Each structure stands twice: as C-alpha cells, then as structure tokens.
Amino acid sequence: MNKSSDIDSSQLPFExxxxxxxxxxxxxxESEKKSRKxxxxxxxxxxxxxxxxxxRPEAHVGKRHWILxxxxxxxxxxxxxxxxxxxxxxxxxxxxxxxSPFLQTGQYISWKADIAQVWIWDELxxxxxxxxxxxxxxxxxxxxxxxxxxxxxxxxxxxxxxGVEGRIWNDGLLVASRWWKNxxxxxxxxxxxxxxxxxxxxxxxxxxxxxxxxxxxxxxSSGFDVFDVRTERFWIIIALxxxxxxxxxxxxxxxxxxxxxxxxxxxxxxxxxxxxxxxxARAKALQYxxxxxxxxxxxxxxxxxxxxxxxxxxxxxxxxxxxxxxxSKSELDFVIKGQDLAPVTYINAFQxxxxxSEITAxxxxxxxxxxxxxxNPRGDLHE
Length: 383
Hints:
four-stranded mixed β-sheet, alpha+beta, globular, about 375 residues, disordered N terminus, 9 helices
C-alpha cells in the first residue's frame, strides 16, 4: 500500500480577487505601518469538516481555512533531539509515514524545541469533502490548535464541535491528546492518564467550553531551511572563529590557573581516597537497580491468555473475527475481519490500554484490518 504524506495545501497563497475586493476604499497614501496592521486583520472564512457534514461560513469574503474536527485527526509527538538539524525534516517524514494508517496523509506540524507536535488526517477524505462543496483550495488546520491550551499545565477536557478532547500538558507542550465521542467516564479518564505516565489519582476534570482562537496556539512550522547543509557549515565556521578568540583571550588566565591547581593536587588525592568507599557503594546500588529492571523486563510481560483477553475487550464492535495472530515477547501483530473497520477508531480504542504502545493499523482489502503494537512490561506500567 502506497502512502503519501507530501500534501501541502496549507501553504496555498491568497487569491487576487479576494485581495482586490477587500482592499477597495483603502487610501493609497496610507503609511506602511497602517498597511501591515490591515494585513493582520484580514478576514477569514472557516469551513468545519465534521464526521458526517461540512459546516460552511456565513461570510463570502476572506482567506479560506479548512478546520478538521478532532474526531478526524490522530495526534502524536516525536522527539528528534538526537537527529542533526539538517536531517530532521526527512527523519520526521519517515516516522509519520510509518505511523499513518491513511493512503494519503494530511499533516499539521508545530515544533517546540526538539519535539514535533504532529496532527494527521485522511487527506483523500478532506479533498473529497472540499471538492463536494465547490472548493479547490483552503488552508487546513486541526480543531485542536484553535481551542486554547492549559495555562498551568493541568490536564484538560475540552468540548469540540463534535465530542470531547482530553489533553495532557508539560511546560506548554501537548504531550498527549485523546478524543471521545461523548464525555469519558472516570475509568476511561484514568486509563488515558496511566497510558501517558500520569498519576491515576487525578480526578476527572469538568468539560471546558471555549470560543476558537483567532489564530492557532501551535503555529505551523515551515521546516528547517535555516539549518540546511550550507548554512550549517557557515555556523560551524563562525563557532570555530569564536572559540579561537575566546581561547586566545583566556589563554593567559588558564596558564595562571594551572599553577593554582597544581598546589591543590595533594588535597584532591586525599579527598578522592576518602570518597572511594562511597563511589563503590553507589556503583553497587546502580548495578542492583539495573538487575532489578532486567528481571522485570524478563518476567513482566503479560501472559498469552491475558493478552488475548485484553485485545478482545478493546474491539469497538463485537462483530469482528481474528483471522491471524502473531505474538512475540514484546510485539503483537494480528489481522481482523469485519465490516467498516476504520483504522482511526481501532487505534483510539487500543491507545486507552496501558498494555500497548506505538499502535499502527492499515487496511488489507475491503474487510481486513492489520494491527501492530508493542507490549509494555508490567515494570514500566508501575514506574
């Protein structure tokens, strides 16, 4: 199955006819400052795609925004701190392609430091709905980026146009997001918290209702052009020159410090000998900790019977049949057969369980759905 994630209709320009109609009556002698202020307040028309229908705006003039309801999107973060800047765009594209269950993937990416916040959706479905109402282009946004974020990093339940979104935050980063068609029960909320390493004692918060923000709180990132290979070489040269200047400036001081350190060496040797028993004790404690983790990993995975019971209980509908089952110590693959097997629905169902992680799903023919997931050791669940 060929999947594509290079959809970028979100970067479409304004249309000249719209600019001309709005700019009528603007005095040509206005200052540049007033012109910039006018550009920021340019009107927007928001088309909202839901599970069944598309809501059209009342306005007839303005930039076209296509808002995808939260129930149509999947969300995940990717930490690329260990990937060089020049390679991050390609690395993220590969990971999104591996994660996405769609034949053609629409995406909205916003970076916070080294972590990518990524929303994806079925781009073929979006284009079909857009063309059905006579639109050829519009800038796509997930509904999540228009509902205000938490001000104090507390978990949220936010009312969407359809359903409810659960959110977990950390220092302004949306760590996890989960959508329910109806407000979750307390047990469902606890499962969501535990699956994302949160304390299950956090009570079910009230559902908050917000007006949409005029602009997204998570700004779409355009990429890493600043850090391409040529620019990266330039910054390396600048860094080397700066380092040389600092080294020359500090050279004399470092030479003087060398004599001071030499006088302290005898005292440092005495302190080192006194601290040796403490170092040995710490090394042994770390060794015992590693051995304990290893034992938990060896014996901590669920039994085949527990695993099968958990999988069956996660099926959204009972009218499915398991036709293939492949299980190893840390991974599970299976194929189910049934009617209307939507990958997003099954991924959301299995994300509620702390037993599974890195869940993917893809269609195999009209009636089969292949699912793959990693199994979490019990030791990881209790940490």
